[in-house]
Design brief:
Length: about 350
């Protein structure tokens, strides 16, 4: 019964994508009509309603793309980007070395508010990023997703696959001003308030068994049927590595709060989301590609900009997390695309 319910929930979660072609919204919250607010509520049951000072964007869909008058070759590129975004596993063994797809983290085809909608990156980049200490453009953010979340080797800058992915991202951003000076409704995974109690591994384990194991497995390995990933792995070699954004407890807690369980979110309390994140992020996974051969040294090197929010290099249940050289299913640690940049004009 639990499995049937989980699969049904997975199907219901796709309703946002299948219905959203009926409406495209790009306006301030204060300008929303009652009908548009009702449409948003139907799309996002139980989600926070837009505030007057927030910019609300529901991206165009693939049905809108078909109906548009843009050049057929551009349509072809956007469709290829959509295909790669929704089925990134087709690049497994080449660019992807776990069981993740782009839509594993950016749900609803990358369009859904509060589920990491990717159009926001298009209109706010290039920008400085603390994680790597330099200005990043859209392609570099995608490089990060492949390197960390997919534990992989990114498509080359300017390659056909990279251009296709960026084209799809830009299609979703149609109608949004570049570098907006207002808050974007549903951007990213809105950070939760600090928990009333310290996140607890044991409470998280009980919640996981009750709410998550039916889909993601008791061992966090996810579910693959007939070679197709139905539910992604949450830890282990088939999951994201220690450098991925979801390895940060606050990021995963927010994702869980607004998106899990599928078809029922948000139904967990903030504290439950924090406890679940503590449990999932307290499990072992492939090494951070920036590993220096010493987990304590690596944590210290990237603590201020990243690992202060992870459990990497800390002892959990008597085990020092990340104290290994396991890189998962790939045969390298760090892809060449992860490199520093300098725009001062003085770099040698």
């Amino acid at each position: 019964m639990l499995r049937k319910f989980s699969v049904l929930s997975f199907i219901l979660a796709g309703v946002f994508a299948s219905q959203a072609h009926a409406v495209q919204i790009s306006k301030m919250g204060k300008d929303l009509t009652p009908e548009e607010r009702a449409t948003l509520k139907a799309m996002l049951p139980n989600a926070p309603e837009p505030k007057d000072d927030e910019f609300v964007h529901i991206p165009p869909s693939m049905a809108d793309l078909e109906a548009s008058n843009i050049h057929p070759k551009l349509k072809e590129a956007i469709k290829r980007g959509y295909d790669l975004f929704t089925n990134t596993q087709q690049l497994k063994g080449k660019n992807v070395f776990n069981n993740m797809n782009c839509v594993s983290c950016h749900m609803g085809e990358g369009r859904r508010p509060f589920a990491g909608p990717v159009w926001a990156a298009v209109v706010t980049l290039p920008d400085f990023r603390g994680k790597n200490g330099h200005v990043n453009n859209l392609e570099e953010r995608i490089v990060g997703c492949f390197s960390f979340s997919m534990n992989g080797k990114p498509p080359e800058y300017g390659s056909d696959d990279m251009v296709a992915l960026t084209a799809y991202h830009q299609w979703l951003a149609k109608g949004v001003p570049v570098y907006p000076d207002v808050k974007l409704y549903g951007r990213g995974y809105p950070k939760l308030k600090d928990p009333a109690e310290k996140p607890d591994f044991a409470r998280g384990k009980a919640l996981y068994e009750q709410n998550c194991a039916a889909c993601h497995g008791e061992n966090g390995a996810g579910l693959v049927q007939n070679g197709k990933v139905q539910f992604p792995a949450l830890w282990g070699d088939d999951s994201f590595n220690w450098g991925a954004g979801a390895a940060r407890v606050f990021t995963l807690a927010a994702f869980i709060k607004y998106n899990m369980p599928l078809g029922k979110a948000p139904s967990l309390t903030d504290q439950e989301a924090w406890d679940l994140a503590q449990y999932v992020d307290g499990q072992e996974r492939p090494q951070d590609p920036r590993y220096t051969e010493d987990v304590k040294e690596t944590r210290a090197k990237y603590e201020k900009t990243f690992h202060k929010d992870t459990l990497y290099g800390l002892e959990v249940n008597g085990k020092l997390l990340g104290n290994h050289k396991n890189v998962g299913h790939k045969d390298f640690l760090k892809p060449d695309a992860l490199r520093s940049r300098d725009f001062s004009g003085q770099a040698k």
